Amino acid sequence: MHAKLPPESLSCDVCVIGGGSAGLSAAAGAAQLGAKVVLIERGAMGGDCLNTGCVPSKSLIAAAHAAHVFTCAMALGVGDAIAPKIDFEAVHHHIHGVIGAIAPHDSVERFEGMGIKVIKEMARFTSPTELVAGRHRITARRFVVATGSRAVVPPVPGLRELDPLTNETIFDLIERPDHLLVVGGGPIGLEMAQAFRRLGSEVTIVDVAGILPRDEPEAVELIRGVLRDEGIVLHEQAKLIDPKRSEAGVSATIETAMNRYEITASHVLVAAGRKANVEDMGLELAGVKFGPKGIEVDGRLRTSNSRVFALGDVAGGPQFTHIAGYHAGIFIRNAMFGLPAKVDYSALPWVTYLDPEVAHVGLTEAEVRKAHGEVTVIVEHMDDNDRAQAERRTEGFIKLILTKRGKVLGATMVAPHAGEMISVWGLVISGKVKLADVASMIAPYPTLAEISKRAASAYFKPKLFGRLPKTWVGLVQRVLP
Ligand SMILES: Cc1cc2nc3c(=O)[nH]c(=O)nc-3n(C[C@H](O)[C@H](O)[C@H](O)COP(=O)(O)OP(=O)(O)OC[C@H]3O[C@@H](n4cnc5c(N)ncnc54)[C@H](O)[C@@H]3O)c2cc1C
Ligand SMILES: NC(=O)c1ccc[n+]([C@@H]2O[C@H](COP(=O)([O-])OP(=O)(O)OC[C@H]3O[C@@H](n4cnc5c(N)ncnc54)[C@H](O)[C@@H]3O)[C@@H](O)[C@H]2O)c1
Question: Which residues line ligand 1 (CB under 6 A)?
């Protein structure tokens, strides 16, 4: 047995609460600039992204993709109509193997190697200038709250009593669900739905509104078709009623405006939005204001207590790992360099890792219309792309949203690897690359990425092949030998 250690008082430059994507990046940045840093994490280092979010979900999707390749190969003249054999326990090992391979990067040892004091405890403010974590009492010049978010169980009577799966438990399954009922058709719900379907589960999705609430309607329509073609049962504008335990696992009613469906499922996954982790940490005592969406921050990510910053999912804005890292950069510029850096989401990208991937950056058409009135929309379809034809993956498209004067404010791509191709449009939207540069680049043939050049060229086409250039060419041809 360990002897009880005595209380310890610590004072540091930066005290970070939360060892997820936001907290780890902020702590590493501050320490590498010479600050004395204390990092407090109550659970697993790496937070949601490594342990229960991006990494396990993308690993599961990779397994699902491998299984799906069998079912598509016949269209390319390869194989017989055989269903792949899924060893779900091996899929589970694969997922946790990937987490294990990345974990050293986020480990206590790595962060202690940077000179950071890591405390594995729950942190709680006791005043605007002090917090406690286990036996430690910590004062700091700056605090960072990066405590993340967790799944919300919607207030459907009976649902909580079923103890449904969430992102925190679904990757622990070692047996494949026979029938997964997914509550919520946002990115989490759909990524899981398609992956489990491809690994052989029956899947039903129920969404009280519509799927992919933040994406362009054309992208949503295409994905709806893909999911249904793969055999997923999708109920939108639908209510889940009276879910309860049954012999098969769970039974419930799903009600739409037109119909009522009685369904049974073996497992229920809740993916109906997130709630910021703001409870039980003395934010009131610290004078840090928060609301239903999370901690209230200004453009520089400062809270109502000027020595406390809030970063990542808890800060009530977009919830992505790349935003957590971006927030950490804003914190470093403000707190370490004394620069008044502010967040700018105008070129914010997001990707939903379905197949095909749905990638977006900047504003949607509806948002541009609302802000600017008239808009120019350019759409190019993947069936005009030779690589897409060669791979028989012609279902996607690119959509650019421009102001009437030709400024690109948003882009959506739906295609295999769309997430790998969207970044160029982030550069265009942020003004670092011109639309004309994309139109005139030499794109390797045949690549899916040629679609970007094609869309950019489409904007200039009417000007390039208009009356003026034709007249000019006519004149030049008369004088050329
Ligand atoms: C299934 C799923 C898939 C996802 N896929 C993607 C994706 O593909 N791409 C993407 O960009 N984003 C994805 N996300 C979102 C991404 O995971 C989050 O945006 C990101 O992890 C947020 O990082 P964070 O540091 O703000 O919070 P977290 O990673 O949640 O870290 C917060 C940490 O704080 C700790 N903590 C909380 N309270 C206290 C306390 N009082 N004291 C001490 N420690 C505390 C927690 O234990 C946790 O480790 C996904 C999320 C989920 C759930
Ligand atoms: N690829 C990625 O980058 C990725 C992947 C997964 C998650 N994430 C992040 O995680 C966040 C949360 O994802 P999410 O999918 O949980 O939430 P979400 O808010 O994006 O979607 C939730 C969905 O659940 C539905 N819903 C809400 N209450 C319901 C109810 N009672 N019954 C049925 N449906 C209901 C909503 O209509 C909505 O469509 C995302 O916003 C995103 O930032 C990102």
Answer: 17-23, 40-43, 47-49, 53-54, 57, 122-123, 146-148, 167, 188, 277, 281, 312-314, 319-322, 324, 353
